[in-house]
Amino acid sequence: MSFTRGLLLATFAVLSIGRASAQVDGAATQMVIPIVSSSVSFVSQIVVKDQSGTSRSVTMQFFEAQTSSTPGLKACAAISLGPFETKTVTLTGQCPLAAGNHHGFVMLTDATASRDKLFYAFTRVENPASIGFTVEGYPIGHLGGGDVDSEVAGVKRRAAAGSAPAIQTNCFVATLNDPVSYTISLDIAGSVPISDSLGAFQMKRYLDIYALSQLPDGVDFDNTTVTFSKDDPTQFPNTLLTFCTVQDNTSFGADFRIGKNWNAADLSRFRLNCFAASFGANPGECTNTLQPSAPAVTAGNKVRLLTRIYAPDTVNCSILGTRQADLEMRLVRDFAPGGVVAGGTTSSFTYTTGARSGVGNGYSQYFWIEVGFREGGSAVYPIPFGVRCIAGNGMTDPRWIDSPPDDF
Question: How far apart are CA 48 and CA 33, in angstroms?
Fold first, then answer.
């Protein structure tokens, strides 16, 4: 992409949005709300807002958990929406629920034939005293993928004599299209991992995760991390949706904490990139073992790699392989005003973007990572290499584009 085209696209993106842009890209044509409830303790109000500017409807499916009164899929009434209308419905008002307590997750889908009408959604889960918590609806493509582990940090239990109110942590696991076998573990000595499995579109709730991990009754715990791990390598691509709620057992007020992955299962959002090399054993590590497809610098030419950076951020990149001393790298903006922004004479660089408003009119943009021969190095060609980059917001896995003449 040329500098001019990059600026043109950014300008077009600003001008083509007729309504205010959200802080988080939360619009979708299919949305998952991880937890809804209809019980003596909690009820759910589900809020949907049209973003298409047309009258239409959204279908609603309730996947009741295996640990609930009547497990399985419930086909609920569709939600009709006018142009940009916001509407609140309840789980009991939309879905045919038998007597008992019910919990599970909801999937909302644009009902038009083309499935191109966007909407927002979230739920408010609250107790009879209107104390509760909000759970955002997540675009279905933002959930799941290849990461093996997810974590919920900072959960706790208050159970010792004289402690009031008592606090309990409950954890949940759900699947979408595929089955998953998994283990739930706590970072507490003496705790016993929980091994379990789910079929497609199922959920389970684990009441009092400390008790289920066989920790002693009447003991308080703070700052616990709960780790959810997929057990079967053939199932690593499958979605495992994880979260915990921490509730007080007097008012039944609670909060919601989604499971988080260290690295996105998204090549455009890797916190750690090991381009053309192997990942190391620990987070943040790459090895110097290059892949057979690794690019190489040849006499008189540099290698250009394309990536995307999400400001504001600080990005650190370095050359991998056995010949770092013979190579240099730099970072070049592929949008106005262009130019080198970091590196140029060494085998690594650090780039701090500054405020998002100063990068591409606030829109994330492409950059070139360029690698060439370092003057004074050993001029024995070709010189294969890899690149390690780590970024706080994640960045696009670098892609080889071309090998033009070396000009630095």
Answer: 11
C-alpha distances out from residue 22 to 17, 25, 95, 299, Å: 11, 6, 30, 49
Helix (H) or strand (E) holding 11: helix 3-15
Q: How far apart are CA 184 and CA 170, in angstroms?
A: 12
Contact yes or no for 340/331 (Cβ under 8 A): yes
In degrees rounded to 5, what are phi and psi of residue 71? -60, 155
The CB-side HSE value for 162 (13 A sphere, CA atoms) comes to: 0
In angstroms, the Cα distances linking 365 to 256, 358, 394 are 33, 11, 13
**DSSP-assigned letter for residue 198:** E
The torsion of the CA quartet 197, 203, 209, 214, rounded to 10 degrees, works out to: -30
User: How does DSSP classify residue 293?
Assistant: T
DSSP classification of residue 210: H
- Is the pLDDT score of 128 beyond 90? no
Q: Give the tens place of pLDDT for each residue, 270-306.
A: 999 999 999 998 878 999 999 999 999 999 999 999 9
| 150 in Cβ contact with 186 (< 8 Å) | no
**Those residues with Cβ within 8 angstroms of residue 233's Cβ, 6 or more apart along the chain or in another chain:** none
- My answer on whether omega of the bond before 233 falls inside 30° of 0, hence cis, is no
Contact 36, 125 (CB under 8 A): yes
106, 128 contact by CB (below 8 A): no
Burial of 185 (0-12, 13-18, 19+ CB in 10 A): middle
Both tokens of 20, joined, read 């205010």
List of domains in the chain: 26-142 (2.60.290.11), 149-258 (2.60.290), 270-402 (2.60.120.380)
Q: Which two tokens stand for residue 162?
A: 């004289």
Q: Phi, psi at residue 406, to the nearest 5°?
A: -70, 125
Per residue in 67-81, pLDDT (tens digit) is 999 999 998 999 999
Residue with tokens 């090998």: 403
* Tokens describing residue 230: 């997929």
